[in-house]
Design a protein that fits this description.
Layout (H helix, E strand, L loop, with lengths): L1 H13 L4 H13 L2 H8 L3 H15 L4 E2 L6 E2 L1 H25 L6 E7 L4 H15 L3 E7 L2 H9 L5 E6 L7 E13 L24 E2 L4 H10 L3 H4 L6 E2 L2 H9 L5 E4 H5 L3 H7 E3 L4 E10 L6 H14 L11 E3 L8
Parallel strand pairs: 3-4, 3-5, 7-8, 11-12
Antiparallel strand pairs: 1-2, 5-11, 6-9, 6-10, 6-11
Length: 332
């Protein structure tokens, strides 16, 4: 009898667990900080700590080791965090079922890598917002490594990245293939050619994106830039294509640009400074990536259609043989 009463009391206690408490658990695990988690959840830190304390009392275990900085889940706490994510997932799924599978509405968190965001977001976001006013679309610039982590911990619903990534549990759906171009300074010898070869850039000073940008590794692979040549002369790395373009305009070095960036250049610059590569033309494959197939399916489908529409005309599929430049391979 006593055992049955204990089980009944336990079940009654667990009935007091709230979705808010579970969201706080997931937030603390993501940020590894009570302060940052509270800021993210728009509550005071004491309020968040109090709710987590109540949850730990109900579960009769310590979820986070507060003696460590940053805070980390305890051994049993890690399982609680994983289950909290699963419960929150199914709750979101319940909302979708209630709204109907085909209704395009709700909140969607989309990550886009920084080398794509400035050119792609203005092309699709205004039209998407007009067509789907019931979608609360939150778009963030996120580097690839962070995007993969956030897709797995559910702080992002989907992303736009350069692929193939080959990440376990992450699905990729190709959107388009974007050719790469050489961008040359005034009166450069290669400017006399209709097309340049990849090998033509081996001995050039190539301006690169900063560490952490996947476009950097693609250019290194494309140009076969060695560590020795990277150290030659002045070195500047940027997170902005605009800065790289201005360096080249000043007569220093060359760079490589994707087609969407080239389309944004003034026509005289496109004619005088931009040169396509000889076949096989190097391209970067841009894809929609996500970790959960069943969640927000209607919104994801609408986003994929909008992104493909925004990139219409990019790549000239079928006109010229092309080759996908690897995302993470290092130069030979």
């Amino acid at each position: 009898v006593r055992s049955r009463c204990a089980v009944a009391k336990r079940a009654m206690d667990l009935a007091n667990v709230t979705l808010t408490q579970l969201r706080y658990v997931v937030a603390v695990d993501r940020f590894r900080s009570f302060r940052l988690a509270a800021k993210h959840c728009h509550v005071s830190q004491p309020a968040l700590s109090m709710q987590l304390g109540k949850l730990e009392e109900l579960l009769d275990l310590v979820v986070f080791d507060r003696s460590r900085q940053p805070v980390v889940p305890t051994a049993r706490g890690a399982a609680v965090v994983a289950q909290a994510r699963a419960i929150l997932h199914e709750t979101e799924r319940l909302v979708e079922v209630a709204q109907g599978e085909t209704e395009i509405a709700g909140r969607y968190r989309l990550g886009i890598i920084p080398s794509l965001a400035p050119t792609l977001v203005p092309r699709f976001l205004p039209a998407f917002s007009r067509e789907y006013p019931k979608v609360e679309l939150v778009v963030e610039e996120v580097q690839t490594d962070a995007m993969l982590r956030r897709l797995q911990d559910d702080s992002l619903d989907g992303g736009v990245a350069v692929t193939p990534l080959g990440a376990a549990g992450v699905h990729e759906q190709e959107l388009f293939r974007e050719p790469l171009y050489a961008y040359l300074p005034p009166r450069h010898a290669l400017g006399k050619r209709a097309r340049v070869r990849q090998s033509d850039l081996v001995d050039e000073q190539v301006w690169l994106m900063a560490e952490g940008h996947c476009f950097r590794t693609q250019v290194l692979h494309l140009c076969r830039v060695s560590q020795e040549s990277e150290r030659r002369g002045a070195r500047f790395e940027s997170g902005s294509f605009e800065t790289l373009v201005r360096l080249v305009d000043a007569g220093q070095g060359v760079t490589v640009l994707p087609e969407l960036v080239v389309q944004g250049l003034a026509l005289p610059h496109q004619k005088k400074r931009v040169r396509p590569f000889a076949a096989p033309v190097p391209v970067r494959q841009v894809s929609f990536v996500h970790a959960r197939e069943h969640l927000h399916r209607a919104i994801a489908g609408a986003l994929i259609s909008a992104l493909k529409q925004a990139a219409r005309g990019v790549g000239g599929a079928g006109r010229t043989p092309s080759i996908i430049v690897p995302v993470t391979d290092t130069p030979d």
